[in-house]
Write a structure and sequence with these properties.
Helices cover 38% and strands 18% of the residues. It has 243 residues and is an alpha/beta fold. It folds into two domains: 2-153, 3-Layer(aba) Sandwich (Alpha/beta knot); 168-239, tRNA(m1g37)methyltransferase, domain 2 (Trp Operon Repressor, Chain A). A five-stranded parallel beta sheet has the order 2-1-6-5-8, sandwiched between helices. Helix 4 packs across helix 6. It is elongated. The termini are far apart. The mean pLDDT is 95. The chain binds adenine. Adenine binds at residues 87-89, 132-134, 136-138, 141, 144. The site of adenine (ADE) has 11 residues, from strand 5.
Length: 243
């Protein structure tokens, strides 16, 4: 998979994308992420990429042409048109389900806005969808783009040791994840749940599923309403109703 990021702050993106799991995945060739400086695509002799808004008002607007030229340069390097996402607080709020869908695409082009906004005409021309990372406003689309690359990247083949690393975790199956424990077996007088020390894999699986259900019910009851539950799950939830 290849992800292209169009931004005015490529160094900010590179700094994050060179570290940790995504940095290693890039180095190993599991995922290709290319950051482009939109400023490199302006034809303005002063390297300008923004101008005042028509109709007046505060702030500056990112101009259409440098963004479009950047997009065209990226398209020229790809065998097909990329799926174009504009990071914006007006977009659909990102969920794990959306991230799974994006992780199955070959080419993504992420457009990061700044200042007061982006000239609407280039959005109309190239953007397939707008995505928000939550109902709050940031200074630009870079942090949201990095969030997107992080969550997509970790689901690409070869990035995590095995698929269960993400198929069992919070949100993937519509439930929150069960609690984790490691050595020592007793810490500050607190013991690790006995079942986890039993070596009985079937019992451990049942316990983990029940803990997932319990946590989701207590912390995110809204998620439980939408989760796919088995008869066994429902029976367990019924049995703990009063607890
Ligand atoms: N740009 C500014 N705020 C944003 C948000 N919440 N999500 C995505 N892009 C943004």
């Amino acid at each position: 998979m290849r992800i292209d990021i169009a931004t005015l702050f490529p160094d900010m993106c590179e700094a994050v994308l060179s570290e940790s799991i995504i940095g290693r995945a890039r180095a190993a060739g599991h995922i290709e992420v290319v950051c482009h400086n939109i400023r490199d695509y302006t034809l303005n002799k002063h390297n300008r990429v923004d101008d005042t808004p028509y109709g007046g008002g505060m702030g500056m607007v990112m101009q259409a042409d440098p963004i479009f030229r950047c997009y065209e340069a990226v398209c020229a390097q790809l065998p097909e048109k990329p799926h174009v996402i504009y990071l914006s607080p007006q977009g659909r709020v990102l969920t794990q389900k959306m991230a799974v869908e994006y992780s199955q695409k070959e080419h993504l082009f992420l457009l990061c806005g700044h200042y007061e906004g982006v000239d609407e005409r280039v959005l109309e021309e190239i953007v397939d969808e707008e995505v928000s990372i939550g109902d709050y406003v940031l200074t630009g689309g870079e942090l949201p783009a990095l969030v997107l690359v992080d969550t997509i990247g970790r689901m690409c083949e070869g990035v995590l040791p095995d698929e269960s690393a993400f198929t069992e975790e919070s949100h993937y199956n519509g439930l929150l994840e069960y609690p984790h424990y490691s050595r020592p077996a007793v810490w500050h007088d607190k013991e690790v749940p006995e079942v986890l020390l039993s070596g009985h894999h079937a019992n451990i699986e049942v316990w983990r599923r029940q803990q997932s259900l319990l946590r989701t019910r207590n912390k995110r009851p809204d998620m439980l309403e939408k989760a796919e539950l088995t008869q066994k799950d429902l029976a367990f939830l019924e049995s703990i109703k009063e607890k």
